[in-house]
Amino acid sequence: MEITVQDRTIYEQLCKDYLNLKLLAQNACTSPERLERCKQLILEDVHSKRKLSRVSSCEDLLQILEQRNLLSLLKPELIERLELALDSEDITNAIKLYRKTISLHYAPIRRFYLEDLRYRDRRTLLEREVEKIKLAENPNISSFHEKYRKQRETIYSLLQKQIGRDWKAFGRNLNITEAELDEINERNRNDLKGRIYEMLLSVEQTFTDDSLEQFISTLTKALEKIRRSDLKRKIESELGM
């Protein structure tokens, strides 16, 4: 079966949609009671009450499911099950579209997904050691990287909820071109949060792990330009800046 450029585009969009599904689940898990219901729904799959007892957030829960290969880009079923506890129309609608995409394009999606897995597996021990050395040589980078990793979803969620109709102005100040903004809008016609998420992801991917402070600086400057210094302060507070 011939794989086309369009197939690759569909796969890349599905990767973004998968991340968005996880974020929607985290946003909908608004109380300890909901988190507990989610744990009960997947208890038999995880087979470890002790492991689940240590879970304090939906993000931790999803991470465990991925580590145990119970949840992945090709296996979104458990997010669908969690929706029973989260009662989110956004998740319901997103999972329907997600499943439809997989159903229509399963073969090329699976091929690209497996290729990506093999590529990640090919990373050598030397490459990993080089990364460790870089972080060890600059403890400030290491410290900030760790802070950002822990607060990333919180920051994304905050901006998705608060930017609203200013999303295009925000995007322009992130140096996203009009053509790119139009494409993002086209891909997320009925999903404002999806547009904002895709913008943030595309900008973040232009920065390396050791330049994440520059990424945050870019975000906060863009927020100031659209007169949302309140969000700038919240992000800085989350990161202890």
Automatic annotation (TrEMBL):
CDD domains: Death
Chain coiled-coil ranges: none
GO biological process entries: signal transduction
InterPro entries linked: DEATH-like_dom_sf, Death_dom
Protein name: Uncharacterized protein
